């Protein structure tokens, strides 16, 4: 997963990456709207641009054409759609889903490219559901937390943060650390909720340094609960592991 995302962010960052891109007229991708290859949505201030690239990945560019975020979907012609049930999904030309934000269950949700460079999905009632920095409630199977990204509980009381020194740390609202992985002194490390069921901390060199040892449970996901529990559940919601 990390290698795919790294490839997504390694695309050309010059102005030629934007050549021929068609901008939408606002800063949102509303429910039911589609971004085809070379179509884009820009922030109101014009400094940030989300482009569905011909190479297959959805990429957010900032000032100086710097890639800030990219979906792990390079290598195949694809399109992005803000589905009416609330998911942002990238499909290939055979209409097979390649990646999604796991935000279904919120009809009318929309994606916004903000003036501060954040990429956010809001519900129809403007409730925060997902951003390029954060997940709400859970880290889905196949998704990754890079440095500075986190999963927060739905009530906003707890945050599981991937820190720059390499630890994955659970904080409460008072910013008190409640739990941590023993993975410090590894700058650039990241956490991956692998498709086979393991949560793994990798070093910046892609070496596994810590795991929950929950492999063999395809589709498992990590949850940060309103009570402050960090739990890995199977795809049928059976608990497999919890932070001690």
From TrEMBL:
Signal peptide segment: 1-19
Q: Where are its TM segments located?
A: none
- Bulb-type lectin domain ranges (all copies): 26-134, 136-244
- PROSITE patterns (alphabetical): BULB_LECTIN
Q: State the UniProt keywords alphabetically.
A: Signal
Q: Which PANTHER family match?
A: G-TYPE LECTIN S-RECEPTOR-LIKE SERINE/THREONINE-PROTEIN KINASE SD2-5, RECEPTOR-LIKE SERINE_THREONINE-PROTEIN KINASE
UniProt protein name:
Bulb-type lectin domain-containing protein
What species is given as this protein's source? Answer: Microtetraspora fusca
